[in-house]
Every structure is written in C-alpha cells, then in structure tokens.
Design goal:
Layout lengths: L11 E3 L6 H12 L8 E3 L3 H10 L4 E2 L6 H10 L11 H10 L23 E4 L5 E4 L1
Parallel strand pairs: 1-2, 1-3
Antiparallel strand pairs: 4-5
C-alpha cells in the first residue's frame, strides 16, 4: 500500500464512531489528502473494534488517535531521568526494583537470630480488670 493517502481509493477505512475524536481527525486527514467521505468506504469502528476488523480483514485502513498526553507520559516514564530515582527513568527504576529481592526489598523484618523459628513465642493480653495474661 502506498504512503500517499490520496491513492487509497477503494479501501475500507475504520474511522471511529460518529461524534468521536478519531472520526473527526480521520475525516480531516482524508480531506487534506483530497478524498471526500462520499467517495470512500467508511466504517464506524474505533479502538479495539477497528483493530479486530484490520486483523480479520474486514477493514483495510484503521485510524487510531491517542491523547496529547500519551507522548508526554511516554517521555516522562521512559526517556527523562529523575534525580529522585537516582538519575533513572521511572521505567528503569521499576525494572531494577522488580529484579531485586522482589517488589519491595527489605520490606520484611529480618530475624535477630538464625533459629528464630524454634524459639517459643508468647502473647500477653489484658483482661477487663487490667490483669496481664500470658499465652504461650
């Protein structure tokens, strides 16, 4: 398929449902390419439905629109190092954390002795009169 959208005649285009931002952007793009909606096969599919139609072969072209913040979010999480994360990106810091002792290294208290499991444990409670009771 050619990169020149003006030559996409006869193709089925998933441009999003009526009233969607995807449809508005697709129609503007197609008009800028010299194509009018009347001369095109337009499908009111967007998002996952458009992807499924492309995969199934019932659409030839799909238009997908991401919010303007998507690029910023990607840059923030994957490109820009953060001083508070040791000059790593959030994605790098998360991978490093997941590869260490688990998702929260050092979060569990360490036993003071090696044989802590064999030591006797006891619990002290107070009853209604304030007396201490020991449970072992």
């Amino acid at each position: 398929m050619t990169a020149n959208a003006g030559l996409w005649r006869g193709l089925r285009r998933a441009i999003g449902p009526e009233g969607s931002g995807t449809r508005a952007a697709a129609l503007e793009f197609l008009a800028a390419s010299g194509l009018t909606p009347e001369a095109l096969t337009l499908l009111p599919l967007g998002g996952p439905a458009a992807a499924e139609a492309l995969h199934a072969g019932t659409a030839d072209v799909g238009f997908f629109v991401a919010p303007l913040t998507a690029l910023w979010r990607y840059d923030y999480n994957n490109v820009r190092p953060h001083y508070s994360l040791g000059n790593q990106t959030p994605a790098e810091a998360r991978r490093a954390l997941e590869q260490s002792e688990g998702s929260a290294p050092g979060a569990l208290a360490r036993p003071e002795t090696e044989d802590y499991q064999t030591q006797r444990l006891s619990l002290r409670t107070r009853d209604d009169r304030g007396q201490v009771n020991r449970i072992t």
